[in-house]
Amino acid sequence: MTDGATGRARAGAKTVADLLRRRGEQIAQRWADLPFFQAVFTVTRDEAVEACHAVVDSLSAVAESGRVDDLEAPGFQPIREQLIAMTASRARSGLSTAQVDREVGALREAALELLAADAPEEAGEARVQLVTLFATLRVMVVDTMLQENQEIVLRQRQQLLEMATPVIKLWDRLVAVPLIGMLDSARSQVVMENLLEAIVEHKATIVILDITGVSTVDSLVAHHLMKTVASARLMGAECVISGIRPAIAQTIVQLGLDLGPVTTRASLADALEWALERREGRDLPTRGNP
Amino acid sequence: MNHAAQESIRVPIRKDTDLTVVRQQVRALAQRTGFGLVQQTKLVTAASELARNTLLHGGGGAAEIRVVHGQAGAGLSVSFVDSGPGIPDVDLALSDGYSTAGGLGMGLSGSKRLVQEFEIESGPDGGTRVTVTSWADPYSVGHGVR
Ligand SMILES: Nc1ncnc2c1ncn2[C@@H]1O[C@H](COP(=O)(O)OP(=O)(O)OP(=O)(O)O)[C@@H](O)[C@H]1O
Ligand SMILES: [Mg+2]
């Protein structure tokens, strides 16, 4: 950019800053009726107008500093939190990032019209600055939403981890854990914790670990299974592993893994049958069998 | 071994979640190459063991997965490459139960039993490349090969 161009850009930005300050009230009043504000601040209109003012002031400060294309411009700082809350609210109402982007894009119109009315002779460069300023605002909003989405993904991954390892009470003192996917170290830790808690809660004496949904059983997975079995045993519950598919059974044997003294059954139904027989056997003495 | 390579994928092994990618890619390519469920499961399990060795003992590296064509028809060849400390005594490392890391020590020896071809290039000077190959139809291999 030549010095002359820089100077014109500066002057244009200054015109924008002045316009936003001078016409702040009118802009805020118009924005308050647009979906981006109206749909978020539903309680009173004053609330929406106030939020609009905050955004106008912030944009004016950014223009004043001449950094209209800078996402990191200090002028944006005061409204960052507010924008995060607003976009999150729009996202919760089911709007996509693109839809929110369009809503933010609609804010530009009011400012452009007022610029054309107030400063027709300087409008050229000021218009460029104003358009750039709003483009930056849009990028900021989209960026905020993407970051928010990423956090949602992380949160959901954690939830999935927990959800994918439910402990189901099948019968009195009998619980089952259907394992799905890969039993990596993180997952196996969650399984173990959930299971031990469930053993206490349901006073379980028998646990069925069903691995029908486990895709790969390598030495680490086998190791985790054995650890789970051993800890359940310490809590007074006996484990049976079910759902070992033929391909996995062959693989385990060839790999040279020894599942140790654990009872195994082909299917969950077989394991259940075994467990119920086992319970009978246990219950008999306490029933005062002859 | 000089199987004509056709399709090749490289998966970096830098962190725990990369092991999942290795397993998924090996499984997907094995399915596309016509592997039956048993052959597929064995190869994926071997890959899981070897990729973990690359990460834990080799300090990270990569898996190279390629479709190969040999006498026995189509197959999959997977190399696990790292530039870690290397394996000073390959025969010892290949014995059941040998582990320098407090593991079960079944990874290397077990993987070897799960595949049709197994090769380790390593030494005390560092760097390890373990290459395993399985055929989609292991029973079509010529007399004396199995
Ligand atoms: N890529 C490698 N680089 C250096 N050393 C290796 C590598 N792979 C294997 N080793 C050595 O060979 C030994 C045996 O490997 P193996 O996979 O059989 O057992 P492990 O990894 O120790 O235990 P696990 O049964 O959990 O796999 C390891 O303990 C390690 O010393
Ligand atoms: Mg290993």
Question: Layout of helices and strands, plus pairs?
Answer:
The complex is a heterodimer of chains A (290) and B (146).
Chain A: H1 3-22, H2 24-31, H3 35-38, H4 45-64, H5 77-92, H6 97-105, H7 108-118, H8 123-163, E1 168-171, E2 174-181, H9 185-201, E3 206-214, H10 219-234, E4 238-242, H11 246-255, E5 263-265, H12 268-286
Parallel strand pairs in A: 2-3, 3-4, 4-5
Antiparallel strand pairs in A: 1-2
Chain B: E1 4-13, H1 16-32, H2 37-56, E2 61-70, E3 73-82, H3 90-93, H4 107-114, E4 117-122, E5 128-135
Antiparallel strand pairs in B: 1-2, 2-3, 3-5, 4-5
Adenosine-5'-triphosphate binds at residues 49, 53-54, 57-58, 82, 84-87, 93, 98-101, 103-109, 128 of chain B.
Fold and architecture overview:
Chain A has 290 residues and is α/β, with parallel strands linked by helices. Chain A has 2 domains: 3-158, Orthogonal Bundle (Globin-like); 168-284, STAS domain (Transcription Regulator spoIIAA, 2-Layer Sandwich), CATH 3.30.750. Chain A contains 12 helices and 5 strands. In chain A, strand 2, helix 9 (185-201) and strand 3 (206-214) form a beta-alpha-beta unit. Chain B has 146 residues and is of the alpha+beta class. Chain B has a single domain (4-135), classed as Histidine kinase-like ATPase, C-terminal domain (Heat Shock Protein 90), CATH 3.30.565.10. Helices cover 34% and strands 30% of the residues of chain B. Chain B has 4 helices and 5 strands; from the N terminus they run βααββααββ. The relative contact order of chain B is 0.21. The chains are: A alpha/beta (290), B alpha+beta (146). At the A-B interface, helix 10 and helix 11 of A face helix 1, helix 2 and helix 4 of B. The structure holds adenosine-5'-triphosphate and magnesium ion.
- What helical percentage do the residues of chain A reach? 55-70%
Strand content of chain A: 5-15%
Gross CATH architecture of the largest domain in chain A:
Orthogonal Bundle
Q: What's the mean pLDDT score of chain B?
A: 90
Low-confidence stretches of chain A: 286-290
Most extensive chain-chain interface: A-B, 21 and 25 residues
Tell me the Rg of chain A in angstroms.
32 Å
- Could you say what the CATH architecture of chain B is? 2-Layer Sandwich
Overall form of chain B: globular
